[in-house]
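Run log, item B.
One chain of 297 residues. Sequence copied directly from the ordering sheet:
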Amino acid sequence: MKSKRGFTLVELLVVIAIIGILIGMLLPAVQQVREAARRVDCSNKSRQLGLAALNFESANQDFPPGWLTNDQNEPIADPGWGLTAALLPFLEAAPLFQQIDFDRAVGEPIHENVIQSVLPTLLCTSDPADQVLDISAEDTPPPTGDGSGNSNTSNVETLVARSNYSGVFGTLRTENGTRDPFNGDGMFFANSETQIRDIFDGTSNTMMFGERRNDFGTITWSGVILTVPEPIVRIVGTNDLQPNTDENNLETFRSYHPGGINVTLGDGSTQFINDEIDIEVYRALATIAGGEVASLE
């Protein structure tokens, strides 16, 4: 009677090695599929924000201001509410909108729960940052000029819900004085009242929203908070530098998606912009009336 032959140790080790190789080959593919799904989900969220802005414009005949200030000589002033706060009713967040007193500052204690409210529509799942961050704890260098700098920063803890999408201020930076915060050349700036008819470059050729990361500094949806560093660029971004640039600049549009960022155009459509986009084309996409010929097609 013949005995059954089992695996030898060598054969077993070979099988284990083959399985290990197959798993090693499979994992990157799985990760790529997951990231592709996250990128599509991010694009859909960006599109929802764009449609909310278009619905707001249809109801009010203009887009919401980039942020509100009661002082026409000072861009960093109360009440500071940003454009996304105005869009809340169009993002299925009307109850949160009703909790806001738009005559009082974003950072006042009565709004503590509001500014910490997490809106899933504004979160890209590829960003590993916490959903609520202490924006006052960030050690960002003080900028120069009259843009986003603030000498009134304090050590008081300020917790805010993060966002991964910001309105487009334009082509030039606010923090070094190259662009007046009241006169951005993009769709959203201090007390802006941009209308569809103001977008002379064409809605399909103009960026409305771009993607942001929170590892260079917290991005929030609520607005300009007077007591935190660089408050303006927490809610609007610029196309001064290419997407995902290596330069440490808080205003830049960035993402965790390999190779580029999701953006929403003025017609509500979304596009994926490559990191290597020509800088002049990229800047032209940020302006509403620059007269440039620029397209993503």
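Observations after the first pass:
- Strands lie at 67-69, 79-82, 132-134, 159-161, 165-170, 207-211, 236-238, 260-265, 270-274.
- Residues 30-286 form one domain.
Flagged for discussion on Thursday.
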